[in-house]
Design a protein that fits this description.
The protein has 625 residues and is an alpha+beta fold. The protein is built from 24 helices and nine strands. It is 60% helix and 8% strand. The relative contact order is 0.10. GO terms for molecular function: antiporter activity; monoatomic cation transmembrane transporter activity. This is Cell volume regulation protein A. It is a multi-pass membrane protein.
Amino acid sequence: MLEAMSLAILIGSLLVVGAVFTSLFSARFGAPILLVFLLVGLLAGEDGLGIEFSNFAGAYFIGSIALAIILFESGFETRWQTLKIALGPSLLLATLGVLVTAGLVGLGAHLLFDWSWLASLLLGTIVASTDAAAVFFLLRVGGISLRDRVRSTLEVESGSNDPMAIFLTIALVGIAGAGAARGEEQAILSLMRSLVTQIGFGGLLGLLGGVVIARIAKAVEFEPALQPIVVLAFALVLFAATNMVGGSGFLAVYCAGLVCGNTRIRHALAVRRFQRGMSWLAQIAMFLTLGLLAAPSDFPAVLLPAIALALVLMLLARPLAVWLCLLPFGFSRHETAFIAWVGLRGAVSILLAIVPLIGGVPEGRAIFNVAFVVVLVSLIVQGWTIGRVARFLGLVVPSRQGLVERIELELPGRGDHEVVAYRVHPDSAVGRGGRIPRWARPSLVLRDGRSLRFETAGRLQDGDQVYIVTATDHIRLLDHLFARPAETAGDAALFGDFGLSAQARMGELGDAYGFEVPEAVRGQTVADVIRETLDGDIEEGDRVACGPVDLIVRRVDEDRDVAEVGLALERSGPRPRLPLFQNRREIAAWLRTRRAARKARRDAAAAPPVPKRDDESTKVGDNAA
C-alpha cells in the first residue's frame, strides 16, 4: 500500500515537473503552453508511457475543482474598469454566442457523423465556450498589446461563458437520460427552469459570497501566510454550496472573485500571487489528468470528420456568433474578426466531454474523442497564430511602459497610499535628468545589487529600480514621469515620424504636405477627424488614414480624448479590407445607398418621356427619304 502510494506521488510529481520544464519549449517556439501540458498527459498515458487512467468520475471531480480555482482567479484579476468597458458585448457572447455556436456546430456534427440530433447538439454545447485559461494566458503572458475594448471583451467573455456551456451540457445529458420518460415538453420546461435557477442563484450567491469573503478578509487579521488560503477555501465553500442549492457554482466563484479582486483587502498582493500560483497548478493538473484520460489510438476513427468539425467551428460557427453578438456595439470589422479568431477551446471542452460518458450517452466515447481532437486543432491553429493575426489586422497597439510593480501599503485609519516600484528608462523624463517632484522622492534606490538612499544615490541612472511611497491618486502622474515618451517608445510605424498639435486644422495640414482634403473637413481639427472616424472609441496607437499620410493617436487624456497626435509621412502599408463582419454603421450606410438607388430608379420610371425636337423629326424623315 505504501509503495503504491509513493509510486503515485512520484509519477504525479514527475509529470508536473516535466510539464513545467516543457514550458521552456513553449516560450522558445511560441507554442501555447497549455497545449504542451496536454501533450505531456497524452505521452504519459496508456498509448505513451503506459500509465492507465480511466476513472472518468475522478477526472471530472479533479477538473471541476481546478476550473473553480481558475475562474475565481480570473474574476480576481478582472478590474471593474475592464468589466465596464466590455460588460454588454461579453455577456451577449457568453449567452447568445454560446447558443448560436452550439447550434451551428451541432448541425455540422449531425451532417458529419451518423448521430442523433441530441448527441450532435450535445457535442456542440461541449465545444461552444472559449477556454478561460488559454485566453487569459495568451493575452496576458503572450506579449500582445491590444486595444482595451478588444482585450477586455475577450477576457470577460472567456471567464463568464463557461457556466452557460456547463449548464447546457449537463441539461442535455439529463434530457438524453430522462427526456423520453418524462416527455419532450416536460424536458424542455425543466431545462428552462433549470437555466433560470442556475444563472439566478449562481450570480446572486456569487456576488453576496464575494462581499462576505471580502469583508472577512478585510476585517479579520489572519497570519499573512494563511490569508490566501482562507480566501481560496471560502471560494470553494461558495462553489460547493451554490451547486448544492441548484445554482451554478462556476458562475458563483467567478462573480465572487470579481468582487474580492476589486475590494481593498488585507495582504492583497500575497493573495494575488497565491491565486496565480494555484491557477497555474490547477491548469497543469487539469490538462495532465485529461491528457491521461485520452487514448490517441482511438483518434484515427474520427480524425478527419473531427478536423472538419473544428474548421466549421473556427471558420463558420464562432465568426457568425461573434458578428451577431457584436453588431449592436459598433466594433470594427478587424476587431470582430480578431475576437472571432481568439475563440480557443481548451480543458473546459474536454472536461465537459466527460459528462456524456458518466451519464451513459451511447455516443459518449466518440463525443469525447471528437472534442479532444477539436481542442487540439484549436490550440495548434488558433493558439499559434494569435500574434500574427493581430498584426495582420493592425490591432497591435504600443505597450504601456514605465510601471514595474505596484505594492499596496496598509496604513491605519483611512490612509490610501501605495508603494510603487519603477525601473528607470534612459529616455524617460526622469532618465533624462528631469526634476522629480518633492512628493515623489524615492524612499529607496536599488543599483547594481546595492540599496541606496535617494539623498546619497546622486542622479538616477539607467536601470535603477526606485521605490516610492505616494498617494494612490498620484500614480498616473508617476507613470508619465517614468514612462518612455511617445516619440521614442517605438518607431514611426507605431507613433509616426513627428508630433503635431491635436488642434491643427486639416486644411492647413493638407496644404503643408500636398494632399487633397475634402472641403467638408478642411475647417475641422485633427482631433475632430480622429474622433469622428473612430466614433469616440479612442486609444493610444489608433491610426486614421488621411490621403498619403497616417494620423496616429500618441496620447489620450483622462477623458479619453485626443491629447497628442503623430504624423506618419509614409503609410505603413494598406490594411486588409475584410469583405465580412460589417458593423451597424456600414450596414446602415449600405441600406441608405440601396434605398437611394431604388428611389432614383422609381423617379426615373415615373418621369414623363422627353419629347423629340422638330429638327430631329425632320432629320429622321430626310434619312428615310
